[in-house]
Amino acid sequence: MKELLTRALSGLLFAAILIGSLQFKYACIALFFLFGLVCLAEFNKLIHQKNIASYIIFIVLFVSVAFWEYLFSSSDSLSDISQILLVVCVFVNLLLVRDLFSKKSLPTLLSNHFINTTFYVSSGFVFLLLIALNFENYSAQIIMYIFILIWINDTFAYIIGKNFGKQKLFESISPKKTVEGFLGGVFFAALASYVIANYTNIMLFTNWLIISVIVSVFGTLGDLVESKYKRQAAVKDSGTIMPGHGGLLDRLDSAIFAAPFIYLFLRILNYVS
Predict the structure, then answer these.
(1) Helices 25-46, 2-22: inter-axial angle, 10-degree rounding
(2) Of 57, 194, 242, 256, which sits most exposed with the smallest number of CB within 10 A?
């Protein structure tokens, strides 16, 4: 009971800080920057990387995107740069998904360390920021509701999986995940997308529904990718910063993995609208 209470209070505090910070552009930038550094530190620990190059890359990438128009007097080229980063990031993430289905380890060679820290972790936070910036029109609502969809998917996947789950989803990587839990998460995230669409004027229901599916599918894959890294490192959690939950990366693995795919959909939507 005490552990459950600790977990609940820790989760509520995390949600309150995140949702509160999202209401203000520069608070959001600062929070994502801080979260990125913490998650990068936890990930570096998982892959036994101790040099500072990955932090420098993250800082340069993140600060450049956050303050592009001030640093370069124009935001026009940011769209082109973000598209290039998007292509590489999606490609790397898909390779990580491919490796889930193989018995070999995920890339941990020195030559691959920077690929994973740059395009898996660091770029995930860059795309979360780009989603919030909403093509130069900062929108707290879009990124906030995306996080709510992630939380709803995770919560109901856990509840349904625990009570009704029989068929394992990826037993070799995450023994507790079930097919029933995954489908339950997809269903309730889709249901939440209907509520969001009907109580906001941000996007049509169809668009929110597609985002809920992206969140459910790629969020789950992101959780599995991080679980495989933890299994390789022989640890249960990526850190201890959140009592009852583990590390910050454990809470944000779904979001940073799904972010490039959500941003890709929003770019397509912005292009055709």
Answers:
(1) 130
(2) 194
